[in-house]
Amino acid sequence: MQLSRWVFHHWVSSAAVRALQLSVFVLSGVLAVLLRFDFFAPPGFWSLYGLAVPIGAISKLVAFELFGLGRGAWRFISTPDLGRIVGATIAGAILGGAAILAVLPPGYPRSLYLLDLAIALLLTLSARVAVRMAYEAARHQRQHLTQRTIIYGAGFVGALLVRECSQNPHNCYSVVGFVDDDRAKVGTYIQGLRVLGTGDSLPVLVRRLHATLVLIAIPSATGAQTATILERCHAAGVRFRTIPSLSDYIEGKELAKQIRDVSLDDLLGRNAVHLEEQRIRAKLRGRSIMVTGAAGSIGSELCRQIARFEPACIIGFDISETGLFLIEAELRDSFPRVRFVSEIGSIQNSQRVQDVLHMHAPAVLYHAAAYKHVPLMEKHLFEAVENNVLGTYRLALAASALGVADFVMISSDKAVRPTSIMGVTKRIAELVVNSLSGRTTTFVSVRFGNVLGSNGSVVPVFKRQIEAGGPVTITHPEMRRYFMTIPEAAQLVLQSSTLGRGGEVFVLDMGEPVRIVDLARRLILLSGLRPGEDIRIDYVGIRPGEKLSEELSTIEESSLPTSHQKVKVFVGNGAPRDGMMTHIETLHRLCTIRDAQGLILEIKALVPEYNPSAQVLRQVLCPVMAQEPVLTCDDSGHLVAAGQAGVFLMHGAHEA
Known about the structure:
Elements (H helix, E strand, L loop, with lengths): L1 H35 L8 H5 L2 H15 L12 H25 L7 H33 L3 E6 L3 H12 L5 E7 L9 E2 L2 E5 L4 H8 L3 E4 L6 H14 L2 E4 L21 H5 L8 H8 L3 E5 L4 H11 L5 E6 L2 H14 L4 E6 L5 H11 L3 E4 L6 H6 L1 H21 L4 E5 L10 H16 L5 E6 L2 E3 L5 H10 L4 E3 L5 E2 L1 E3 H12 L7 E4 L5 E2 H11 L10 E3 L18 E4 L5 E5 L5 H17 L2 H11 L7 H14 L3 E3 L5 E3 L2 H12 L1
Parallel strand pairs: 1-2, 1-5, 2-4, 5-6, 7-8, 7-10, 8-9, 10-11, 11-12, 12-17, 13-16, 14-19
Antiparallel strand pairs: 3-4, 15-18, 17-21, 20-21, 22-23
Helix pairs in contact: 1-3, 1-5, 3-4, 4-5, 7-8, 11-18, 13-15, 15-16, 15-20, 17-19, 20-21, 22-23
């Protein structure tokens, strides 16, 4: 139906253009005769030579068709078209003259040929120029209703954007010029528009040109460069938008239609992920895939990414019924051909885990269910161990027993030299799955840093504080973290799952660590406010279990490259397989009897590099201090609590 409408519209439009052009040629023939005879043709002239006018008009129309001018849009007439119009008119006049000599009797005045040619050429050019002028006038009138826009970036993308905006009659951008930080470009012209200055001159240019919008056309800009541009836009008091990066550019769609607001991803400056899609598709297509923690931010994004590869079924396992309902509804709309099954349950419930695995027999299991909030887990030692360690062990053991081919555990950079309960439980979980490798199931772990916008991420907290008018609270001015986006993390997890042979810890390329205060400032800029002026930034001190900066590997681990440039594999520093069962049984017993002292000691034995926080030590030492309120000093003069556990743990706190 759409195609037939387009054909009909195109045919009607072309017929109208040809009819108008034919009318011009007929008029030129009549005017030539009238001018030749001073507007009084001799008696009998029209009866004898009247056919000359239509013959000449049709001949010129045929010539215009041969020259490709019959369907041209008159409003786009340009210099190259002038030569073609002159050539077509001369060719049509010659063709018409030959036809007139062959058909009509001798005596047709030869001067009429030249007059007809001159008038036809004049009228044809005048008609097209008039249409172009009317179109331009209408476009300029529309531009008064559009946004006066400065394009930041005088490169290829900026030039393409100007061209599209000028040719699209429905665009809402009236481009008045460029700015570019390359001083060599200042003063040059691109698509008829001048490069007015560098970014530093943006406030002056905005006031002088009455601009209301800046379009950022630098797809390769880093996060720091984008933040600088936003600061200049704020200083100029002008709104800003951007275009997608070249990797996100949707081919076949006009660039101007892809203009969007600047996002935090732009300010993070992360490069796009290029996946080995055929390799991932070979692992996932037509198979049943299970995701634990499917209602969470990482788990739900894993479900979205997995659905792209056409699995037979996705089993979403989570204790949150609302989250499962939402992701199921979303996938039903976005991927109607992919079956999604919601299964409610906890990984701590061995029977429920076994029932679900037995019922659906997944080929691949992505384990994203975990407690991840660092300060909260410092207060809940037993719950963190029961879920992150014992729950992972039960899930992994059931997966191995029931024939799951691949088990991928989502870990964290906080597992490296951990100072938090969350981090150390993740490290033990890595050791647990590593100890099970070599059986029927391939077990691997994937370690990465903070994920923007995920549950527990600092970004939602900052956004709420900004919406409330501030202040934005930051623990320390030098606090740094690795960051990546949720889709990037999920995609690289899928990529890592195709690389494992069993027992590896894969680490994603996190780029350079970002200062949290810089992230906060960029979020404030995105909100249209000025950091330190509109929104205050306060420093509140490091929270329990936190480090100033995170690491991705320990000293004992060595990294090796993989076939994917953004994924590395760490080898070494694994726990002995034979001793892991004993440690697991001990952890389970200590959680059952709620022995905090014994639990931390066992964790320390498993992960010697773990340094417990002061908050954890207070929880552990309080019972000791109540029974034996004796403090003494060791040989080095350090204050210690009486008893072996007290001495051990206080040393750990001092080292931390």
